[in-house]
Amino acid sequence: MKREHQRGFSLIEVMVAVAIIAVGLLGLAKVDAMSISEGHVSSVRSVIAMDVSSLAAAMHSNAVFWADTSNAPATVQMAAQNKTISVSSPSTLSASVVPSGACQNVVCSPVQIAATDLATFGTALYQAVPLGTVTITCNTAPAPVTCSIAVSWQESSVAINNSVLNAATNSNGNNSPLQTYSMMVQP
After folding, report:
1. Is residue 59 part of a domain?
2. Cis peptide upstream of residue 110 (ω within 30 degrees of 0)
């Protein structure tokens, strides 16, 4: 009896091929996760840049308040609380100064307009970075007034491996590095 030579793949060859494909698919899954994470990070940064630009435009339009060396505050501190960012200092720009209707159908003073603009900015910014902080620092001397708007937030992202993750870990053990976006404005 003559045995015919069989053609095809052995079970071992098939298992090796499946293992190689599985490792490749795991790599693709990690790349996909990083792509989604970086897309989210990019969109958050874009929203922050647009919100800060919007505040800068509001500062330009209220130059009576922001460009006046006797009115412009040296520093404005804002931090996230509940669902908005509230002004902690100076109190003259807190949400309590904003009239009902937020200066829509009411004649407002420059301070009330600035408080309204900051409240609107804070509400929009909270949606992008709920734990963000804002510092507006104005240099009132010598004229003209220049202000720096700085937004800081914790950013979460996916690391490619543990060494990259450990390098991004901050001193608090949090793997969400602190990010800051700043813009200079001359109202």
Report:
1. yes
2. no
